[in-house]
Amino acid sequence: MKINNVITHIQKKNWIKVGRVVYVRYILIKEDEIKISNFIGLCIAKKNKSNSLLIKNNVKKEDIKLLIHTHSPLIVNFKILKRYKKKYRLNKLYYK
């Protein structure tokens, strides 16, 4: 039992990597309404201390960046859609 818990904990920790295209569904709370919003983008940075991801997407020639805390209760789910076209070796892809 304990070995299985350790293995699943290790797999959950490193399942999103920089350079992957990620689909995120999260709850967006406004003044009088609650919505479930979707965001698709390239993961350009991953911070291990705060367990957060920075996801970037281009819409109408403007960059949109979204900072997501992975342990937030407002996150509905994550999906990894694919790898990016090129292979990057850097931890942060701010130039892309």
Walkthrough of the structure:
- The chain has 96 residues and is mainly β.
- The chain has a domain at 17-83: SH3 type barrels (Roll), CATH 2.30.30.790.
- It is built from one helix and five strands, in the order αβββββ.
- It has one helix at 2-13, and strands at residues 20-29, 34-47, 52-59, 62-69, 75-83.
- The chain has a five-stranded antiparallel β-sheet, with no helix packed on it.
- It is globular and about 45 Å long.
- Mean pLDDT is 77; it is low at 1-13.
- The CATH first-level class of the domain at 17-83 comes to Mainly Beta
The biggest sheet amounts to: 5 strands, antiparallel
The helix-strand sequence is HEEEEE
Distance between the termini: 43 Å
Helix content: 10-25%
Q: Spans of 5+ residues with little confidence (pLDDT < 50)?
A: 1-13
Morphology call:
globular
CATH architecture of the domain at 17-83: Roll
Strand content: over 45%
Strand order within the widest beta sheet: 4-3-2-1-5
Radius of gyration: 15 Å
What is the residue-averaged pLDDT?
77
The helix count comes to 1
Q: What class, by secondary structure content?
A: mainly beta
- What's the β-strand tally? 5
At CATH level 3, the topology of the domain at 17-83 is SH3 type barrels
